[in-house]
Amino acid sequence: MLLFRRLAVLSLLSCWNVEALPSISPDAAVVSNVAALHAALAKRAPLILLRSGSTFNGQFIVEHACTIVGERSGSAPILTNAAFTTSSNVDSATLYLKAKGMIRLENVHVLNTAEDHNSGQSARGKHPKTPTLAVAVSQSTQAVLVDVKQKSWQDTFLCNGLCLLERGSISGWVDMIYGAGKAFLQGTTIYNRGCGGAIVAWRSTTGGSVVLNDVNIVRANDGFADVKDGTCWLARPWAVDSVVVVQNSNLGTIVNPKLWQANGAGPFSFAKGKTIFAYRGLRGPGYVEQQVDQSLTHHRHDFSLYTTPAIYFNGATWAKV
C-alpha cells in the first residue's frame, strides 16, 4: 500500500510543475478539502500539493518549514476567509506563515473576502471592525511566494520576516503592503481598489526595508467607482525609520505623481535622514519626473544593495525562485 501511494504521488508531480522545488518527497500530501489541508499542516508534511479548482475556506496557520504548491493544470486553488479585526491583523490573516525556517508557496490564490460595502457598511473606515490580511509572515519566517495572488480590502500583505515575492499580485485599498521585515517584490502586479493611506507602509526600526522591482501598479477592476486617477500614494512611513525603494517599475494613472506621502501611519511622519524613499527607472503615465516630491526623495541612495534578491538577502540560499 505504501509503495502504491508513493508511485501515485510521483505520477502526479508533473501536474504541479515542481521539478525545480527542493526536497520533493514521494510522501507529499495531496489535498482537495479543508479537513485534508488542516491534517497535512498538523502532521507537518514537508510538501503539500493543492488540487486545482479546490477552494479551502477558513484560516490556515503554517508553523513548520514546508512547500505548498497549487496544481497548475486547471484553475489555481483558493484559500479564502471572511474576517474582520479590531486588534491584531496577524492573528486573523487568511494565511499566517509563522515557521522558524523557510516556507515556499506557489500558484495559490489567497483571499480575505470581508468587504464592508458589500455588507451594507461603509468601506471607508467607518466600520467598527476592518477587513484583515490575506497573508501574514512572522518575524522568524523566510517566505518565498511565487505566482501567488493576494486580495483583501485593507492591509493585504504583511511581512515581518524575510519575504521574496515573484510575480503574482496584491489587491487592496489601505496600506496594502506593510511590515517591519525585509521584502523584495519582483514582477508583481499591484491592484489599487482604493487610495487609502498608501500602497506601501513600512517600519525599518529593526533594519527592515521593502523593494518593489519591476512591478506594475494599476487600478483594480473591482475597486471603488469614485476613485480618481493620481490619488494613490506610493509609500508612507509606518515609523520614522522607514526604507522604501521602487525601481524599474510601471506606474499606472492611479498613482499620485508626487509619489510619497509625508504623513505616516499613526503618529509617524516623514523625518529627513531617517525616512528613506528612493526611486529609479520608473515609467508609465503615473510617473512624471517634474511632479515627484523631491523634498521627500532620498537622492544618495546606494541602489547596488537592491539589484537582485540574492544581493538584497546577502546571498541566502533560500532566496531563489
UniProtKB/TrEMBL annotation:
Signal peptide feature range: 1-20
Gene3D superfamilies listed in its UniProt record: Single-stranded right-handed beta-helix, Pectin lyase-like (2.160.20.10)
Domain Pectinesterase catalytic span(s) in chain numbering: 68-262
Single Gene Ontology BP annotation: cell wall modification
Biological pathway: Glycan metabolism; pectin degradation; 2-dehydro-3-deoxy-D-gluconate from pectin: step 1/5
Keywords for this protein: Aspartyl esterase, Hydrolase, Signal
E.C. number(s) listed in UniProt: 3.1.1.11
Domain of life per record: Eukaryota
Cited InterPro entries: Pectin_lyas_fold, Pectin_lyase_fold/virulence, Pectinesterase_cat
UniProt GO molecular function: pectinesterase activity
Family listed: Belongs to the pectinesterase family.
Record's protein name: pectinesterase
Organism: Ceraceosorus bombacis
